[in-house]
Write a structure and sequence with these properties.
By secondary structure, the protein is of the alpha/beta class. It folds into two domains: about 140 residues, HUPs (Rossmann fold); about 130 residues, Rossmann fold, CATH 3.40.50.12370. The strands form three sheets. It has a ten-stranded mixed sheet, with helices on both faces. Strands 3-6 form a two-stranded antiparallel sheet. Helix 1 crosses helix 2 and helix 3 packs parallel to helix 4. The longest helix has 20 residues.
Length: about 280
């Protein structure tokens, strides 16, 4: 398991989350601090037009950060972990390191010495391009929550997300909530309306039931709940995240742009969820 660490508050949360995961799963933990590089400055202007043969300038050393990370892990009860630093462009370094990882964990926001905000750039790039699951950790709105929320749209990617959630729940004892949501063009989207269910809703319920049927057989001991919600999928998952310990989404979903490396729903959830988010592939 690989965790990116830059000493920020959210990176510290990501490290603590990873420590708990490592202890729970007995998966070795590697902490990686990246000494970012920045373009050279000419005439007071940084990031000007590139010139052949010009080398980017490395910024700082992360030895002190790794000492801080080592103390956090020791306090969490992690007896052994690999702590490394590397120099280069943050995304490139983490993507290469992630090729041999079972999971890549990052904080939702960070601060590099270059001032780069993680969720605006690094996290999104990692979620799009990493070859392993990416977990973006943020403070949960409900720290005592015991529900793993999964977005289901009938795609292979969402089936992978559901299997991931159920395998995790087998170890943690949490409840898995499979949510299928869709945007409706109607004056009201009241989920608790007493109006008769439409044929469209019945079809949606059938899709969700078919999506979870095989998973119930594979994970009989997991408590699995289903919810069909006539609300935009991203908003439905964000709302559900307020009472969740983790939201799990597939890296791609169905829709007009299913070939995108990161689906639009996943992007909404990454930006707005109120708990950690796992993007699986």
């Amino acid at each position: 398991m690989l965790v990116a660490y830059d000493g920020s508050a959210d990176a510290e949360r990501a490290l603590q989350w990873s420590a708990a995961e490592s202890l729970r799963t007995d998966v070795p933990l590697r902490v990686l601090a990246v000494n970012a590089v920045v373009p050279p400055t000419w005439g007071g202007m940084a990031g000007g037009v590139g010139m052949a043969g010009v080398v980017d300038i490395p910024v700082g050393d992360s030895s002190a950060l790794l000492e801080q990370a080592d103390k956090t892990l020791s306090d969490a009860g992690v007896g052994s972990a690999t702590l490394d630093q590397a120099t280069g462009h943050v995304v490139d370094v983490l993507l290469r390191a992630g090729e041999s990882a079972s999971m890549l964990v990052v904080g939702s926001h960070g601060h590099g010495r270059t001032g780069e905000a993680l969720i605006g750039s690094v996290s999104q790039h990692l979620a799009r391009h990493a070859t392993c699951p990416v977990v973006v950790v943020r403070q949960a709105r409900d720290p005592e929550a015991r529900r793993i929320v999964v977005g289901i749209d009938g795609s292979r990617s969402s089936a992978t997300a559901l299997d991931y959630a159920c395998r995790r729940a087998e170890d943690t004892g949490e409840t898995v909530v499979a949510i299928h949501a869709w945007r409706v063009h109607a004056p009201s989207t009241d989920v608790w309306s007493s109006s008769p269910r439409s044929v469209d809703t019945e079809e949606r319920e059938r899709l969700l039931a078919e999506s979870v049927a095989g998973v119930r057989e594979d994970h009989p001991d997991v408590r699995l709940e289903q919810a069909v919600v006539p609300v935009a999928p991203g908003q439905a998952l964000v709302d559900a995240s307020a009472g969740a310990s983790l939201v799990v989404v597939g890296s791609r979903g169905l829709g007009f742009f299913s070939g995108l490396l990161l689906g639009s729903v996943s992007q909404v959830v990454l930006h707005r969820a109120e708990c950690p988010v796992a993007v699986v592939r």
